[in-house]
Design brief:
There is one protein chain. With 614 residues, the protein is an alpha+beta fold. It has 21 helices and 7 strands. Helix 2 runs antiparallel to helix 3 and helix 13 runs antiparallel to helix 14. The longest helix has 68 residues.
């Protein structure tokens, strides 16, 4: 491929030495744009840069920058890809090349949507695309923009906005579709998704059926993949509607089409729908069989992707580490070189004062600039390492999430056996109870890990309500009464006689107090006491949880609220501890605009104080 491109450029190169051949430039650019190999794209970009940028050709400069953006995007270097896309976009705006702007905006939106998972940024970019394509009168691109906006608003759970933009695309696209000049597949598919999310299943089925009927008669290369997706969507909608016969028809069809395409991922999705359908029908045996088939396929796919991602992350980390070490060594060498130059300048200064002073000034200025540039590069590399650490944490969340599937299966079978426990022996009943306890512990551990890892994603929608704190605290205490009674621990509530109301999120506040109470009981010995006090200050609410437990060592206090931290103190009755509870409490407290502190003495007990601003 590179030899052919070289001969092509060799033929047209001499004709461009005096004047740029616009037709040849466009031909070279579009040939590069249709290549799938990233290195070949870079080769074309380098060639165009050498041959076409000798003169002042603004369009050629934009093409080269965009090709470099494609190269880095395909290599997974999204920071450099965005840099080249934005540089090309700035040039297109500078020279008022509107069509180029729409192409580059589409590239940027794709990176933010698929690669960087930032739908808010992609939404703003697609809205600008709508404005520019409306100005150009490019109806085809405008329909695609409306379809993408609909998908993004569905992703953001803003379904009314999604329906608005999709209906705009439908309005301008219907006349062209009737003339056979436009396909509205994405519009119809996203409309079906929007109505599915708002639980209007009849409407969602109508839109999915339009695509299904079209794909039945289609002979396009992708019609089997589209037909599979249509059948899967209709099966899901019919399942939610409780039209089980229709759901089974389309679910079986989707599995047949997935097998025909030899796609393991499509088969996994089809088995997932079949499992959900069997569970809704109450056929738990089939549900388990379908779930096992889905889990087998899905686990293989996830493991392959996970191992690949881990390998890529390790490779990137090692590369960055070596590059940083090289930069640090270079900085040390530069520093040594700088000192040697200073010594030489001092000798020269004794000989010729004027010349020595000038040389000193120049060398020192250049050295400082070089050191500053090196330090700035090191800072950027450290920031990139932080991003890689975030990706590593994301992988932990993915793996933890996938572990929940086998626990769910074990729990389902344990519940089915629990319903037949009259036919079991005492030892079998005891074993069944232990299975349930182990399953619940595993599910709680996974839930804690996921809760800590997603602390920065803001996935919980705040639900504020005016809470009576006395009644709220009494309710939480009642929930722990049985647990405390098993250890003969007395629970006490100290709350003012007057009613204290506080505007907050019930779920988050309850979760925080439950974690603190659970820890207090867990680390308090039999026959002791645990106290909760609620008081109202001038502009805040104070909640204290005090125990008479084993206490915490002073040198362990700074790490008390860190994720996965382990302290030397142990639960008094052999209870389990994940090291996540206090990290969750601290995250919830900060989310509620509050602060938490701890005072503790070994052998005396601990006091956790939460201050929440009104």
């Amino acid at each position: 491929m590179k030899l052919l491109s070289f001969l092509f450029l060799l033929v047209i190169g001499p004709a461009l030495s005096a004047q740029v051949d616009t037709v040849a430039l466009q031909r070279t650019y579009y040939r590069a744009a249709h290549l799938s190999d990233a290195d070949s794209v870079k080769y074309y970009a380098d060639s165009i840069s050498r041959l076409y940028l000798k003169g002042d050709n603004n369009d050629a400069n934009i093409m080269v920058l965009r090709l470099y953006g494609w190269y880095y995007e395909n290599k997974g270097d999204f920071t450099n890809a965005l840099n080249y896309y934005y540089r090309a976009l700035d040039s297109a705006r500078k020279y008022h090349l509107i069509e180029r702007q729409t192409h580059l905006l589409t590239d940027l939106a794709a990176v933010y949507t698929s690669d960087m998972k930032q739908p808010q940024k992609a939404r703003a970019i697609y809205q600008e695309c709508v404005r520019l394509n409306t100005q150009l009168g490019d109806v085809h691109s405008l329909i695609a923009n409306y379809a993408n906006l609909g998908a993004i608003y569905n992703n953001l759970q803003l379904y009314d906005s999604a329906l608005y933009f999709l209906m705009q695309g439908l309005r301008i696209g219907r006349p062209l579709e009737e003339q056979g000049k436009e396909s509205l597949y994405e519009i119809y598919n996203n409309l079906g998704n929007s109505y599915y999310f708002v639980k209007q299943y009849d409407e969602s089925i109508n839109w999915f059926r339009i695509n299904y009927n079209d794909d039945l008669n289609s002979h396009s290369p992708e019609h089997l993949a589209n037909l599979w997706l249509d059948a899967l969507n209709m099966a899901d909608s019919y399942t939610q509607k409780a039209a089980f016969d229709s759901a089974a028809k389309y679910a079986d069809l989707s599995l047949q089409l997935a097998r025909q395409q030899e796609s393991r991922s499509k088969q996994a999705d089809s088995y997932q729908i079949l499992a959900a359908l069997a569970q809704r029908r109450g056929d738990y045996k089939k549900a388990w069989e379908f779930q096992r088939s889905w889990y087998t396929l899905d686990t293989a796919l996830v493991n392959a992707e996970t191992y690949k991602s881990i390998a890529e992350l390790e490779q990137k980390y090692e590369a960055r580490k070596k590059e940083n070490e090289k930069l640090l060594l270079q900085a040390a060498l530069d520093q040594q070189k700088f000192h040697n130059q200073i010594m030489m300048i001092m000798v020269g200064f004794l000989l010729v004062i004027a010349i020595g002073a000038a040389i000193l000034f120049i060398v020192k200025r250049n050295a400082n600039r070089q050191l500053q540039a090196t330090n700035e590069l090191i800072v950027r590399q450290n920031e990139r390492l932080s991003e890689l650490n975030y990706e590593k944490n994301s992988l932990i969340s993915i793996v933890s999430h996938d572990l929940s599937t086998p626990f769910a299966s074990v729990s389902m079978w344990q519940q089915l056996l629990q319903n037949e426990q009259d036919n079991l022996s005492p030892s079998q009943k005891k074993a069944l109870d232990r299975i349930g306890q182990a399953t619940r512990y595993g599910e709680n551990l996974i839930r804690h890990i996921l809760d800590v890892e997603k602390a920065q994603t803001n996935q919980h929608m705040m639900q504020l309500e005016n809470l009576d704190l006395r009644i709220f605290a009494e309710t939480v205490l009642d929930e722990f009464g049985a647990v405390a009674a098993r250890k003969d621990i007395q629970l006490h509530l100290d709350c003012p006689h007057k009613t204290v109301y506080f505007l907050s999120d019930r779920q988050l506040l309850s979760r925080m107090l439950e974690n603190l109470l659970s820890n207090a009981i867990k680390y308090t010995s039999t026959g002791k006491n645990v106290f909760i006090s609620v008081s109202e200050e001038k502009d805040a609410i104070s909640i204290k949880v005090r125990d008479e437990g084993v206490g915490i060592q002073a040198d362990e206090m700074p790490h008390l609220f860190a994720k996965y931290s382990k302290i030397s103190s142990r639960p008094t009755a052999g209870e389990s501890s994940t090291g996540l509870g206090l990290a969750i409490v601290k995250r919830i407290c900060e989310e509620l605009n509050g602060q938490i502190s701890c005072e503790s003495a070994p052998g005396v007990g601990s006091v956790f104080t939460v201050i929440l601003k009104k």
